[in-house]
Design goal:
By secondary structure, the chain is mainly alpha-helical. The protein has 2 domains: 173 residues, no CATH class; 94 residues, Chitinase A, domain 3. It has 13 helices and 5 strands. The strands form 2 sheets. Strands 3-5-4 form a 3-stranded antiparallel beta sheet. A two-stranded antiparallel sheet has the order 1-2. The longest helix has 21 residues. The C terminus is likely disordered. Its EC number is 5.2.1.8.
Length: 303
C-alpha cells in the first residue's frame, strides 16, 4: 500500500464486503444459473461462516457505534477537507492510487471519516495528564525554518559542504544540485515545522534542531530520501510551555494513535457504551478481539 494511503488507514481499514443480509430466513433468489440458484439464505450462511464476513460485521458495528457517539464532532466538511488534501497530494495519479489500494471514492471517504471519529473518541476517553505534558515539553522544539539540499550520493553531499565552507552560497548550491524540485529554486527553503511534524524524517529533524541561526550541517544527513545538507534560517527560543500547550497535546495524542493497546482500549470503551446485542448465535463472538483486555489485535473499523 502506498505510504500516504497507508497513513490514512493507520487507525482504520474499510472492508471490501458488505454484510447486507439479515439473520431472518429468506429463500429469495439472489442468483440464477443453468440448473440451479443461490438464495439469500445460502449467501448469508456462507458469508457469516467466513472470516471476511465476520470482520465486516464487526467493522459495521464499530463504525456505527462511533458515529452514534461522536458523529456531531466530525463534519462532512472535515471529511472532504481530508479527502481533498490527499487528492491534491496525488494530483493526476489520485484515482489510480485509490484503485490500486482497493478503494472507491465513497469507501475512502468513509475510511477518513472513521479515522476522524476514532480520534474524537480517543480525545474524549483518554485525557492528557500534566505529567505527560511536562515529559513532552522537555523534548519539544518550536517551529523552525530551514533550507536543505537533497542529493542521492554521499560524495556529492560532501563536495557541496566543501563548497559551502569555501564561501559558495547555500541558495546557489541548492539550485544547482538539489533533487528536491519543489524547493531547489527557492534556495532549498522548506515550510516551517516543529517537533510534532510527522511528514519529515526523524533524523532530518534531529539534525536540524541542533543548528543555530545561520549554521549548516557539516556532515551529510542520511534520510530515507537520500543525503541532506541542512541550513538553519530561523530557530526561535523555546519560550513558555503555555504558548505551545496545544501543539504538545496534539503530539501526545498522535503518539497514542500509534499505540495498539491504547486504541484497542478506546474501541472497547466505545463498544461497551453502545451496549451491543448480537442476535445470531453464530456471530456472537465477532467483537471478542476488541473486547478482550489482553488482545493486541490491531484496531480495524469500517462501515
Amino acid at each position: 500500500m502506498n505510504k500516504y494511503l497507508k497513513k490514512a488507514a493507520a487507525l482504520v481499514a474499510v472492508a471490501g464486503i458488505a454484510l447486507t443480509a439479515t439473520a431472518c430466513s429468506s429463500s429469495a433468489t439472489l442468483v440464477n444459473y443453468k440448473g440451479g440458484k443461490i438464495t439469500q439464505d445460502e449467501y448469508y450462511k456462507e458469508l457469516k461462516s467466513s472470516q471476511a464476513g465476520k470482520t465486516t460485521l464487526a467493522n459495521m458495528i464499530i463504525y456505527r457505534a462511533l458515529k452514534q457517539q461522536y458523529g456531531k464532532k466530525v463534519s462532512q466538511k472535515e471529511v472532504n477537507k481530508e479527502y481533498n488534501n490527499y487528492k491534491k497530494q496525488y494530483g493526476s495519479q489520485f484515482e489510480a492510487a485509490l484503485e490500486q489500494n482497493g478503494y472507491t471514492t465513497s469507501s475512502f471517504k468513509k475510511n477518513l471519516e472513521t479515522n476522524l471519529l476514532t480520534v474524537a473518541a480517543l480525545k474524549d476517553i483518554k485525557k492528557i495528564s500534566a505529567k505527560q505534558e511536562q515529559k513532552a515539553w522537555k523534548s519539544y522544539q518550536p517551529k523552525v525554518t530551514v533550507a536543505h539540499i537533497l542529493v542521492s550520493k554521499e560524495d556529492t553531499a560532501k563536495d557541496i559542504i566543501k563548497q559551502l565552507k569555501s564561501g559558495t552560497s547555500f541558495s546557489d548550491l541548492a539550485k544547482k544540485y538539489s533533487t528536491d524540485s519543489a524547493t531547489k529554486n527557492k534556495g532549498g527553503k522548506l515550510p516551517s515545522f516543529d517537533s510534532t511534524d510527522t511528514t519529515l524524517d526523524s533524523d532530518f529533524k534531529t539534525a536540524a534542531f541542533k543548528l543555530k541561526n545561520g549554521e549548516y550541517t557539516t556532515t551529510p544527513v542520511k534520510t530515507q530520501s537520500g543525503y541532506e545538507i541542512i541550513k538553519m534560517i530561523k530557530h526561535p527560543s523555546k519560550g513558555k510551555f503555555a504558548d505551545h500547550k496545544k501543539q504538545i497535546d496534539e503530539q501526545i495524542y498522535q503518539s497514542m494513535e500509534q499505540n495498539t493497546s491504547t486504541m484497542q482500549s478506546v474501541i472497547r470503551t466505545v463498544l461497551k457504551r453502545a451496549d451491543v446485542s448480537i442476535k445470531d448465535n453464530d456471530l456472537k463472538n465477532v467483537l471478542s478481539s476488541y473486547m478482550s483486555t489482553s488482545s493486541t489485535t490491531t484496531t480495524n473499523t469500517a462501515n
